[in-house]
Amino acid sequence: MKKILSFDIDQTLNVAKTPITQEVADLLTQCLNHFEIAPISGQKFDQFLIQIVNPMLEAGVTEEQLTHLHLFVAQGTQYYRYDGTTPYNEQNWQQVYSHPLTNEQITKITAAIEQAARETGYWEEDKLPAGDEIIENRLSQVTFSALGQTAGTEEKYAWDPDTKKRQAIVARAKQLAPEFEYEIGGTTSINAFTPGMNKVFGMTHLMEELKVEKKDILYFGDMTQPGGNDYPVVEMGIDTITVRSHEDTAFCLRGILGILG
Ligand SMILES: [Mg+2]
């Protein structure tokens, strides 16, 4: 039997950039009784709390159960776990490791993506909500979000449904700063990082930290096609379930929990 259920977040556990539903929160909480649960995504730690942990607290997750939830932040270049302290306090998430980019790398990536987006005509500063930003430093990676973090979900889905715009930006950014890797994820995002710092890095460290092998893991993701940000997990030979949305994931989890009784 699998020991670990690992999940991409955006469009696998939630509607991109929004908290998981109470149904998904409840299913994940039940899964904590049988598995170690490991979400892994390009997002920052505070988004893991907002999108995953807080809804699970509302679903009644206990502090003990939370010790089986492993947060692989920024594609697993940072790892956090809860120390079990009651009552729950978000200060008690411990950072186990972090592998940040250097300032010089961040400056280079940021310049390359901005120039690439401007040249391809997809630098949409005028559509950006006030106080938001297109390029964000997530310590271990730099993330381009075409319409910023706070734009509406529908607007984001409509922006680049066939990923053609982002493919054009990535192609140009690769010419400008070829020493970095670029991945398309979520609905409007491109993540850039140093080679090897993709989900393979995260999954490799997950196996080390949780003392498990590839065969012990079942991974859920929506971008498992070549070039997608879940593809590296498929390529490394981990069993993967491709979903279209959190509804597919919920359906699978109900099946798994149903068999376990
Ligand atoms: Mg996704």
Folded structure, characterized:
This protein folds into two domains: 4-98 and 197-260, Rossmann fold, CATH 3.40.50.1000; 103-193, Hypothetical Protein, Haloacid Dehalogenase-like Hydrolase, Chain: A, domain 2. Helix 1 (22-31) packs across helix 2, helix 1 runs parallel beside helix 9 and helix 4 (103-120) crosses helix 6. The protein is globular and about 55 Å long. With 261 residues, it is an alpha/beta fold. The protein contains nine helices and eleven strands. The model has no long low-confidence stretch (mean pLDDT 95). A hairpin with a 4-residue loop joins strand 6 and strand 7. The strands form three sheets. Strands 2-1-10-11 form a four-stranded parallel sheet, with no helix packed on it. The chain has a four-stranded antiparallel sheet with strand order 6-7-9-8, covered by helices on one side.
SS summary, helix count: 9
How far apart the termini lie comes to 14 Å
- The CATH architecture designation of the largest domain is 3-Layer(aba) Sandwich
* H-E order: EHEHHEEEHEEHHEEHEHEH
Q: Report on the biggest sheet.
A: 4 strands, parallel
At the fourth level of CATH, the homologous superfamily of the largest domain is HAD superfamily/HAD-like
Counted beta strands? 11
Average pLDDT, all residues: 95
Oligomer: single chain
- The domain tally reads 2
Task: Tell me the Rg in angstroms.
Answer: 18 Å
Beta-strand proportion:
15-25%
CATH fold field value of the largest domain: Rossmann fold
Helix share, percent: 25-40%
